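Inverse folding, one chain.
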């Protein structure tokens, strides 16, 4: 195993460090390659790192990686191919070769989310906790977000709301400077006004706040819901399974909370082979689906095959969108709020372009109903 405590040479770049760790630590055992179609094609992470170190340009291949981290999870020496691919993306952006026209869709989505028109922050007097629902949930399920806020506000004094994008698309595409300009601005504004906890409904947002939130402590809303929902279960008696989002593959508290909520709806839970730290990507991760749709489709089909016809319950609205065309997939918040309707496949889920109107209406709702001390919209775009 490479010694992660070994001092990094002063002139070693982040990419060079990841290449060195992979070259030193990869055993070429094939465990990660057996899990990932991309690595089956490219070779072991150690050989990839060696090729890049020798001058091969594999930046295009880096954008085919879903950044799901399954390779990291199964690695016996605990090196991180995921971090290597992310640094390859960042290096490509710095050289002006990373972003392609195929990425415009996700970047436009992010720009809209961080724009003055769609963003809004509302902090009541004494607010130290905010709900951060994320982009997709706010657009596809605005009524659920309103109900969620009301439920949480019964137990969290002076709860605030932040309607904004966490800028994970820029982060994952390697646009490091743009990401930090957006995320750090959001984080610093909240911290300066006394916010210390962020309640997330989106796993991607949770992951960004965990890694870059600093003084902000993120917690998923699902953990709070387990503390405040009735423990007695309705008579649904449905058999379901849980799809753990790959960005939270190591978040045991969030995973346990989703399973507890599933049980409280009266459902019988059957686990898939790949769950928890070894969960599979839905195919949307890292925006790889935009440049490698064949690999994304393979992830979705593998996930659906493991479900073996059972409805998949997940805490990620993006995963629902990606997996639903391949098999019954439901958001855990839909299940909690209306189990019968959700299990019957009749949950109210909006589609684009209506999702954008929903986000504007949700913003208007909170602006009219929430009494705030501090408020703002974004003043800049990434």
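Residues assigned per position:
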């Amino acid at each position: 195993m490479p010694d992660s405590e070994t001092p990094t040479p002063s002139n070693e770049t982040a990419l060079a460090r990841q290449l060195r760790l992979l070259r030193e630590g990869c055993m070429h055992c094939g465990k990660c390659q057996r899990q990932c179609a991309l690595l089956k094609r490219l070779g072991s992470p150690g050989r990839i790192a060696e090729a890049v170190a020798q001058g091969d340009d594999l930046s295009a291949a880096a954008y085919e990686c879903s950044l799901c981290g399954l390779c990291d999870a199964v690695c016996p020496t605990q090196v991180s191919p995921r971090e290597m691919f992310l640094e390859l993306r960042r290096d490509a952006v710095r050289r002006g070769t990373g972003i392609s026209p195929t990425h415009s869709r996700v970047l436009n989505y992010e720009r809209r989310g961080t724009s003055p028109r769609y963003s809004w922050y509302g902090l009541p007097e004494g607010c130290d906790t905010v709900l951060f629902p994320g982009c997709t949930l706010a657009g596809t399920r605005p009524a659920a977000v309103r109900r969620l806020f009301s439920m949480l506000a019964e137990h969290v004094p002076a709860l605030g709301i932040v309607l904004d994008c966490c800028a994970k698309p820029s982060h994952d595409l390697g646009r490091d400077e743009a990401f930090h300009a957006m995320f750090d601005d959001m984080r610093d504004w909240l911290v300066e006004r006394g916010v210390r906890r962020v309640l997330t409904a989106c796993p991607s947002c949770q992951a960004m706040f965990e890694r870059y939130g600093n003084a902000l402590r993120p917690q998923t809303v699902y953990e709070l819901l387990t503390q405040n929902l009735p423990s007695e279960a309705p008579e649904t008696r449905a058999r379901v399974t849980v799809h753990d989002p790959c960005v939270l593959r190591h978040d045991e508290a969030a995973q346990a909370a989703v399973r507890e909520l599933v049980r409280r709806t009266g459902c019988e839970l059957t686990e898939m082979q790949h769950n928890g730290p070894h969960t599979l990507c839905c195919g949307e991760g890292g925006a790889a689906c935009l440049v490698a749709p064949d690999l994304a489709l393979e992830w979705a089909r593998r996930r659906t095959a493991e479900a073996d016809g059972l409805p998949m319950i997940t805490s990620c609205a993006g995963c629902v969108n990606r997996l639903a065309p391949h098999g019954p997939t439901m958001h855990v918040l839909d299940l909690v709020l209306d189990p019968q309707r959700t299990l019957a496949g009749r949950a109210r889920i909006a589609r684009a372009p209506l999702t954008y109107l929903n986000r504007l209406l949700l913003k208007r709702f909170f602006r009219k109903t929430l009494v705030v001390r501090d408020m703002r919209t974004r003043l800049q775009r990434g």
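The longest helix spans residues 176-192. The beta strands are 120-123, 129-132, 160-163, 197-200, 217-220, 239-242, 268-269, 312-314, 329-331, 374-376.
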